[in-house]
């Protein structure tokens, strides 16, 4: 293979994205996950302190996002540990959803 063929194959493999751009996007996703967790913690803490109530909805959203990330990682890497983490976050999503539904059932208008 000559230089042009190698570059063409690399562009095709990386879907015309620069490796530096891919690395930045990975770091951005990692930071976004941490910020999302912090936001959920702050919202839960404030609602607990001020309204004496546990909010489940932010956790449903956050855990489902993280579970999806780990499932996609499992599909790409085929590591059983990634699947285990994905299942753990999916269980947390279901638990938060059950708490949310339980709270809704108890609401009277």
Total number of beta strands? 0
Using the CA coordinates, give the radius of gyration: 20 Å
Poorly predicted regions are none
The mean pLDDT is 90
Question: Percentage of helical residues?
Answer: over 70%
Order of helices and strands: HHHH
Q: Structural class from helices and strands?
A: mainly alpha
Distance between the termini: 72 Å
Textual characterization of the structure:
By secondary structure, the protein is an all-alpha fold. It folds into two domains: 53 residues; 54 residues. Helices cover 83% and strands 0% of the residues. The protein has four helices and no strands. Helix 2 runs antiparallel to helix 3 and helix 3 runs antiparallel to helix 4. The longest helix has 33 residues. The radius of gyration is 20 Å and the shape is elongated. The N and C termini lie far apart (72 Å).
Question: Which key phrases capture this entry?
Answer:
about 110 residues, mainly alpha, 2 domains
Tell me briefly what this model is.
By secondary structure, the protein is mainly α. It has 4 helices and no strands.
């Amino acid at each position: 293979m000559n230089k042009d063929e190698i570059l063409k194959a690399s562009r095709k493999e990386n879907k015309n994205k620069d490796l530096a751009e891919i690395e930045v996007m990975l770091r951005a996703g990692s930071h976004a996950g941490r910020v999302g967790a912090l936001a959920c913690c702050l919202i839960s803490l404030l609602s607990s302190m001020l309204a004496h109530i546990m909010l489940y909805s932010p956790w449903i959203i956050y855990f489902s996002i993280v579970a999806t990330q780990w499932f996609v990682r499992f599909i790409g890497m085929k590591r059983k540990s990634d699947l285990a983490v994905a299942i753990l976050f999916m269980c947390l999503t279901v638990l938060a959803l059950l708490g949310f539904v339980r709270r809704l059932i108890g609401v009277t208008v």
